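R.M. (postdoc): so does anyone remember the format we settled on? I'll just put the structure tokens first.
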């Protein structure tokens, strides 16, 4: 009877073949050299599926390396799918399934992409250089201080090596909340640590607050224009999202009064300082009027102050916050360090009345247990060491250095500045054509723009466009806009 067994499934590497499993004199540690050599031989089909690898002891002896080195190399190869471990038998070459390459249906391949919130967010995560992304909502990475963050992380790791092994505190790292108490006091906001809840950025903060106060069918007011991501988030909760026209000094009070009487909203989410997308700030008179309407019609104000530290806060450029008038009675205040330190830290916070803070902490705990304490410790370290104040001073200086120049450049190529603000990273413009179509053309050229239609709850086509003045250093962006707008 013919033996039909597959030898490869039971074969092992002989001494001659095993000699090539360590590529010495190549870059990297011994572990990386072993991993690279074995992976290459598997990819080149020199090691067949099912082949038994040398034992850890035998490999170590043959290649004159420690057993610990072999163990780590084999573990990495298992994790990467090249080997499999069979208990009591050893390590074997694993059968590797080919990576699937997705193909769009033929009916969609030639279709024009839909410009919506998800489209913009998805493309924000594309690997485009930051200077070719004037539509992004972040400062360029080269403006930020990665070494300051890395230094804080190293310091924390040295003093507490078990930091990653445990949950954090549901309400947030207490020393950070104590530090935030001092920071808010400088803004004339009185809040105890018990009134503060840390979050994974303002995005999670808005989600927690909305879920706490809203039922399906309720109405939430937002600025129009405003930060687009919350429109879709609120809608998925069943909320009716209504835009309040935003004027240079704040919301249109007449319209707010009319719509509040009609809809009786649960929440009004507002950017008071350095509004996104216009970089305008709320006047003291408007802040008082908004608070009075909230009391009259029974809605809570959610004050999103994510761009707080980009505002100089001087007498020449005053910054009025509704919360400083209300002191967390009817206002829930949100902040974050994602814009000024690093987007990937995702450290934000909520300040609210004591009973509301407890409810929000419970809701956060039920949704995600805790936020990541290691990032909260990093932010605390930077704040408490005094580095943060100098860091944001430098950021404001860099913005001041490019703001006027880049706005004049936009005007030169035919873009009309709708609102001029003395601080902040954004400028709100009119490009004089369908901004969605312009955005599609830009993406085809490897440039990310942010069309105005995304910043309104109704998402209707618009000629408005938001530009990030910090992300316009590439002459290619200017050349594209010149040609696209017919001014090149």
């Amino acid at each position: 009877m013919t033996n039909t067994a597959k030898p490869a499934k039971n074969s092992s590497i002989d001494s001659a073949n095993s000699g090539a499993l360590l590529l010495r004199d190549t870059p990297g540690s011994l572990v990386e050299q072993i991993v690279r050599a074995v992976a290459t031989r598997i990819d080149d089909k020199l090691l067949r599926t099912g082949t038994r690898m040398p034992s850890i002891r035998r490999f170590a002896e043959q290649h004159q390396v420690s057993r610990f080195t072999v163990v780590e190399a084999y573990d990495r190869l298992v994790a990467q799918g090249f080997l499999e471990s069979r208990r009591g038998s050893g390590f074997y070459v694993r059968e590797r399934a080919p990576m699937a390459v997705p193909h769009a249906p033929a009916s969609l391949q030639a279709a024009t992409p839909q410009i919506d919130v998800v489209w913009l967010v998805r493309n924000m995560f594309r690997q485009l250089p930051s200077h070719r992304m004037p539509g992004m909502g972040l400062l360029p990475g080269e403006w930020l201080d990665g070494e300051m963050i890395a230094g804080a992380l190293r310091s924390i790791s040295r003093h507490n090596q078990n930091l990653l092994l445990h949950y954090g505190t549901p309400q947030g790292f207490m020393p950070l909340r104590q530090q935030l108490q001092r920071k808010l006091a400088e803004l004339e906001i009185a809040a105890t640590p018990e009134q503060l809840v840390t979050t994974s950025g303002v995005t999670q903060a808005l989600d927690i607050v909305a879920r706490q106060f809203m039922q399906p069918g309720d109405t939430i007011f937002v600025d129009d224009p405003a930060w687009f991501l919350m429109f879709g988030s609120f809608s998925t909760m069943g909320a009716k999202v209504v835009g309040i026209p935003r004027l240079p000094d704040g919301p249109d009070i007449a319209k707010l009064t009319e719509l509040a009487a009609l809809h009786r909203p649960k929440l009004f989410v507002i950017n008071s300082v350095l509004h996104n997308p216009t970089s305008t700030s709320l006047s003291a008179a408007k802040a008082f009027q908004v608070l009075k309407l909230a009391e009259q019609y029974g809605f809570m104000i959610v004050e999103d102050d994510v761009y707080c530290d980009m505002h100089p806060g001087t007498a020449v450029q005053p910054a009025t916050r509704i919360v400083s008038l209300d002191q967390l009675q009817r206002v829930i205040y949100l902040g974050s360090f994602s814009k000024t330190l690093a987007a990937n830290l995702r450290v934000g916070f909520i300040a609210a009345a004591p009973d509301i803070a407890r409810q929000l902490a419970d809701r956060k705990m039920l949704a995600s247990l805790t936020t990541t304490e290691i990032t909260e410790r990093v932010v605390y370290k930077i704040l408490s060491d005094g580095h943060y104040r100098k860091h944001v001073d430098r950021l404001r200086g860099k913005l001041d250095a490019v703001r006027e120049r880049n706005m004049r450049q936009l005007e030169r190529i035919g873009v009309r500045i709708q609102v001029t603000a003395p601080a902040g990273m954004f400028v709100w413009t009119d490009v004089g054509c369908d901004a969605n179509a312009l955005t599609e053309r830009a993406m085809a050229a490897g440039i990310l723009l942010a069309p105005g239609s995304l910043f309104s709850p109704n998402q209707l086509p618009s000629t408005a466009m938001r530009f990030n003045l910090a992300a316009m250093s590439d002459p290619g962006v200017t050349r594209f806009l010149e040609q696209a707008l017919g001014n090149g």
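R.M.: ...and that's the designed sequence above, right after the tokens. Also worth knowing: Confidence is low (pLDDT under 50) at residues 1-10, 15-19, 99-112. The chain has three domains: 7-93, 117-137+390-484, 146-385.
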